[in-house]
Amino acid sequence: MEDVLTKATAEGVRIYALCTTNLVREATQKHGCSHLASAALGRAMNGALLLAATMKDGERISVRFKGDGPLGEVVADAEGNSVRGYVENPDAFLPLKADGKLDVGGGIGAGNIIVTRYLQNAEPFTGYCELADGEIASDLTKYLYVSEQTPSSVALGVLVDKDGTVTASGGFFIQAMPGCSEEVLAKLEENVSLTPYVTQLLEIGYTPEKIIEILGRGLDVDIKETIPVQFKCRCSREKILAALGNLDHASLDELAHDEVTEAHCQFCNTTYTFTQAEIQGLLNKE
Predict the structure, then answer these.
(1) Is 152 within 8 Å of 175 (Cβ atoms)?
(2) CATH number of 4-231
(3) Is the domain covering 237-285 a CATH 3.90.1280.10 domain?
(4) Mean pLDDT over the full length of the chain
(5) Is 101 strand, coil or helix?
(6) Mind listing the pLDDT tens digit for each residue in 22-75?
(7) How many of the other CB atoms lie within 10 Å of CB of 265?
């Protein structure tokens, strides 16, 4: 199934759903993630994409889950239809929970969720609150309610097989808009309670549009658009070299003594190599 995000409305509520199996598989392979880290990173990237879908073109959102668990910090950053992310300790491991599921909550632990919205023609807005349970979807739901006063429901899932390959990934996001009736909210709450896990639906071939129809059954659902989504980092060799050029003279001078300078991007696990002549060229521009 293609990686896509579908947007819809239903009687005063926005409902977004997405499938990200391929892009999450790509990201977790790039980072060499364990089963646990794959689930955490995939959920975070799904959440970031769903929140980015509520923003204007050219705006960006960064979501950080900063807990005391073995995974360390889990970060996802989304703009439009692109997302990137990383796990501080991608090889972290924990035993499965009693129900046989990966213990993402234990992997992240207790701490905070930090959300930064990079808006057009405005200062970035950062909000945070304590993690609900480290399971990411419930943490985002709590954050939206506590910090942004927007009652929402977020469901995120990543299915990882025994050999560590991501076989299904996606999620949905439901948010009431001003004027939405209590009856509609009650109906949606009932529908959500009766809906299987999103990964179960994706596994049997349900598209995001079909998932929205299930969530909105009994309501007047209006599908707005379906867009492709992708794992894409904004880094490049040119951008990294320009960033090195912003270092102070003493730091650049120190780097210029090395035959090779390496710079690493956490988000895509790419290492860039620069020659001594290139660093010297940055010094000469000062």
Answers:
(1) yes
(2) 3.55.30.10
(3) yes
(4) 96
(5) coil
(6) 999 999 999 999 999 999 999 999 999 999 999 999 999 999 999 999 999 999
(7) 17
